[in-house]
Amino acid sequence: MDNQRFLGSGMKFPPQINKSTGRFALSDGAQSVKESVYLILMTHRGERWLEPMFGAHLLDYAFMDTSPTMLGLMKNDLISVILEQEPRISDVNIDIDPHVRDGCLLIHISYVIAQTNTRDNLVFPFYLNVQPEEADNEQL
Q1: What are the backbone dihedrals phi and psi of residue 139, each rounded to the nearest 5 degrees, phi first?
Q2: How confident is the model at residue 135 (pLDDT cuts 50, 70, 90)?
């Protein structure tokens, strides 16, 4: 029996088709947890009308200044949202790189998978107020 079976399995995010079976690809274990955290951050709270409390208010920070105060508020908000919505993890730590590169803040998220006491992490790119086509024009 897989020692991570209790972490569950579900449809892979972003959705993919398994070429050998023709069915939706599944993810399980630690990968399922990582995809869940990513999905929480990518979903704006209220976007899912059947689960209006699911997701984060990350888009509220889209045009913010990157002062230490704002980054601290964002960090605390994200930690709270992740712990509230992903019960399989604990000890969430977020480090936001204050240097904006090409309109993007890098959010480094580390956490512990509670039942295995295994540390994992992901880097989430958060695009601020620069649209991709605007960034291309600035480089010309």
Answers
A1: -80, -15
A2: very low
Are 123 and 96 in contact by the 8 Å Cβ rule? The answer is no
On the question of a cis peptide bond just before residue 14, with omega within 30 degrees of 0, the verdict is: yes
In the block, tokens 């904006």 appear at 100
Q: Which residue(s) pair with 20 in the sheet?
A: none
Q: Are 98 and 71 in contact (CB under 8 A)?
A: yes
Neighbouring-strand partners of residue 96: 107
Structure tokens given for 76 = 């605390």
What tokens appear for 64 in the block?
């913010």
Q: What is the pTM of this model?
A: 0.75
SS3 119: strand
